[in-house]
Write a structure and sequence with these properties.
Domain EAL: 364-618
Radius of gyration: 44 Å
Number of helices: 25
Structural class: alpha/beta
Keywords: Membrane, Transmembrane, Transmembrane helix
Shape: elongated
Helix content: 55-70%
Pfam family, one: GGDEF
InterPro entries: Cyclic-di-GMP_PDE-like (IPR050706), EAL_dom (IPR001633), EAL_sf (IPR035919), GGDEF_dom (IPR000160), Nucleotide_cyclase (IPR029787), Rev_trsase/Diguanyl_cyclase (IPR043128)
Largest sheet: 8 strands, mixed, barrel
Strand content: 5-15%
Transmembrane segments: 28-46, 52-72, 84-101, 132-153, 159-178
Number of strands: 16
């Protein structure tokens, strides 16, 4: 039985309701006996009949029981004594009958049935027994002592019939009470089964996340809480290898290890999927990291399942109440932020929520929400960085780059919001808008200068995996009148890393229509050269990381030379990006590198500025750009 769930103490609530009714009846009995005892005593003093000394304790007893009943009804303690005190009131009834036996005995006896109704109302077999004994005693007194001058004369057989009828009524009530009790037990059984389904993990038999939230919120009302979230890494792969049944057995072994290693005051729960949750109010901030690392070391030991050893890895994110939140929802959210940070750092890592982490994460959340609320046409605009052909020293094309000027947050770096857009899916809508906007503006510029310019557009792997991606691209080109052979789609190595057949088929379909494919940031991935053996591309782009100080760094020179030579052998166009110095440009002239782009030649700019540059002599353009000190967001 826990005390943090809203609807779990069903029996307790029922008993409290019964006790509440009993207290009200106790008040009625108490005041009735108190007032009745006083009136009864005064009546006896004023009565002209001879009253024996033994009759005076009756009103005194009524007053005492009345006061005791009223006192017990106000006390929270004494639950075990209270019913008996209440029931002693029953036993006074036959004694009162003795005094009024000549006047109203034949009608007073029928009030005993009220005892049965009261017992049924409170569902108390004790009260039923007291009622039966009291009533039978009263009827016996009437039968044995009723005077002959009573208004209504009854015979002994009449009293016997009344006793039999009352006994039958009491037996029916007793059977009804046991029947009600059995039904209550059955109801409680089903209620607890429903509660178990609602609050417990069906297989591990530990609280689930909903119960965990209730527990944390309950504890936060009176104390501070330390909360952590543990995640089993590569969980889907484990499922794929072992299947659901074996994976559940493995999770059970993880739970058992957690229970073995954790102190008993930690409240353990099962989170969603592959996560476990823990919370405690008894902690020392200086020791929690050490304890969590020890727990991780214990959890990562091999698991023997069906004769095979399985090695698992975990990560933990932790949060403290107060600094990290005042509700279970806030603490779990910040623990998840810390868990994400731990996963970025590697495996078997522990991370704690911090102001910096919270600020960074909340900033990402705000950007994610702002993306969906953004007006593409008013907040976003496309800038273009010219691509120079080294042989002719002329601008032959441009690369389209997106910029976002948020009304409240100002300029937001593409390096920040592009990744977020890929996570929340907004990149699909944004990428389509960029392609259409860039094609239209470059087409207008080409018509204006009288010669066709090439256009390079970055495409996310999320876009490629969408149904109808190829059709959407071709429809945009057709609607604008942009020749497919002038469009170059830039893909990162991440887009091609998995080499999914359906993705490669889309790339080949684009190439079949004349669209060129380029690999951006070539050489920074895990399988750059392996990709070239599987994917048909037209261009590779050497990243800024290799170009920086290439004129003085021998290692960079070897890398860039190797990539340029390899591109020549594969008959691919090689473009070096990120050139910012004359020395870097001069070094690239010595290689088989056909195209370049970078701040040394031109910074990203709006389409009107690109048009002005195209009208300048090459030497003048470089001087103008070199003198330009505008701060432009990086690519």
């Amino acid at each position: 039985m826990t005390n943090h769930r809203i609807n779990n103490n069903y029996i307790l609530e029922t008993e409290q309701l019964k006790m509440k009714v009993a207290k009200r009846l106790g008040d009625v009995m108490g005041w009735g006996n108190l007032v009745g005892g006083i009136i009864f005593g005064l009546y006896m003093l004023m009565d002209q009949r001879n009253v024996s000394f033994l009759q005076y304790p009756v009103p005194i007893g009524m007053i005492i029981l009345g006061l005791l009943s009223l006192w017990l009804s106000k006390k929270r303690e004494g639950d075990a004594v209270r019913p008996h005190v209440y029931l002693l009131n029953y036993m006074l009834f036959p004694l009162i009958l003795l005094y009024f036996i000549e006047d109203a005995a034949t009608t007073i006896w029928s009030l005993t049935f009220l005892y049965l109704l009261m017992a049924m109302t409170l569902q108390s077999w004790k009260m039923l027994i007291y009622s039966f004994i009291s009533s039978m005693l009263g009827l016996g007194i009437l039968m044995m002592t009723a005077p002959a001058q009573m208004t209504v004369l009854l015979g002994i057989d009449d009293y016997i019939i009344r006793m039999v009828l009352f006994t039958i009524a009491a037996a029916i009530c007793l059977h009804a009470l046991y029947s009600i009790n059995d039904k209550e037990k059955l109801l409680y059984h089903y209620i607890y089964k429903a509660e178990e389904t609602a609050f417990l993990d069906p297989f591990l038999k530990i609280p689930n996340r909903y119960d965990f939230n209730l527990y944390v919120d309950h504890k936060l009302e009176s104390t501070d809480i330390f909360l952590w979230k543990l995640e089993l890494n590569q969980f889907q792969s484990v499922y794929d290898v072992l299947g659901y049944q074996r994976t559940d057995e493995l999770l059970l072994m993880v739970k058992e290890r957690l229970e073995e290693k954790m102190p008993g005051d930690i409240y353990l729960a099962k989170g969603e999927g592959n996560t476990f949750l823990g919370a405690t109010a008894n902690f020392n901030k200086e020791d929690v990291e050490t304890n969590l690392k020890k727990m991780l070391a214990y959890l990562t030991a091999p698991y023997d399942l069906a004769g095979y050893d399985y090695q698992l890895t975990f990560n933990i994110g932790a949060a403290f109440s107060g600094a990290d939140g005042e509700t279970s929802d806030e603490l779990l959210r910040h623990a998840q932020f810390a868990l994400d940070q731990a996963k970025e750092e590697g495996i078997n890592r522990v991370a704690f929520s911090s102001d910096k982490l919270r600020s960074s994460t909340m900033n990402q959340v705000q950007i994610s929400e702002a993306l969906y609320q953004a007006n593409l046409d008013s907040e976003f605009h496309v800038v273009y960085q010219p691509q120079i052909e080294l042989e002719t020293n002329q601008i032959i094309g441009v690369e389209a780059l997106i910029r976002w000027n948020h009304p409240q947050m100002g300029m937001i770096s593409p390096g920040l919001f592009i990744g977020i857009a890929e996570k929340n899916g907004f990149i699909i809508q944004l990428g389509k808008w960029i392609l259409e906007k860039a094609c239209w503006e470059v087409q207008m510029l080409s018509d204006s200068i009288g010669r066709p310019l090439k256009l390079a557009v970055n495409v996310s792997f999320i876009q490629i995996r969408q149904e109808g991606f190829v059709e959407d691209v071709l429809q945009i080109l057709k609607r604008i009148g942009f020749a497919p052979d002038r469009l170059e789609i830039e893909l990162t190595e991440r887009s091609l890393f998995e080499n999914r057949p359906e993705d490669l088929a889309k790339i080949n379909a684009l190439r079949a229509k004349g669209i060129r494919i380029a690999i951006d940031d070539f050489g920074t991935g895990y399988s750059s050269f392996g990709i070239l053996a599987k994917v048909q591309v037209d261009k590779i782009k050497v990243p800024r990381d290799f170009i920086e100080n290439v004129d003085s760094n021998p290692n960079s020179q070897r890398i860039v030379t190797t990539i340029a030579s390899m591109a020549d052998r594969f008959q691919l166009t090689c473009l070096a990006e990120g050139i910012e110095r004359l020395e870097e440009s001069n070094f690239l002239h010595q290689l088989v590198c056909q195209e370049v782009q970078g701040y040394y030649y031109a910074k990203p700019a709006v389409i009107d500025q690109v048009e002005k540059w195209l009208s300048m002599p090459r030497e003048k353009l470089i001087k103008v750009v070199s003198a330009d000190k505008m701060d432009i967001a990086p690519e």
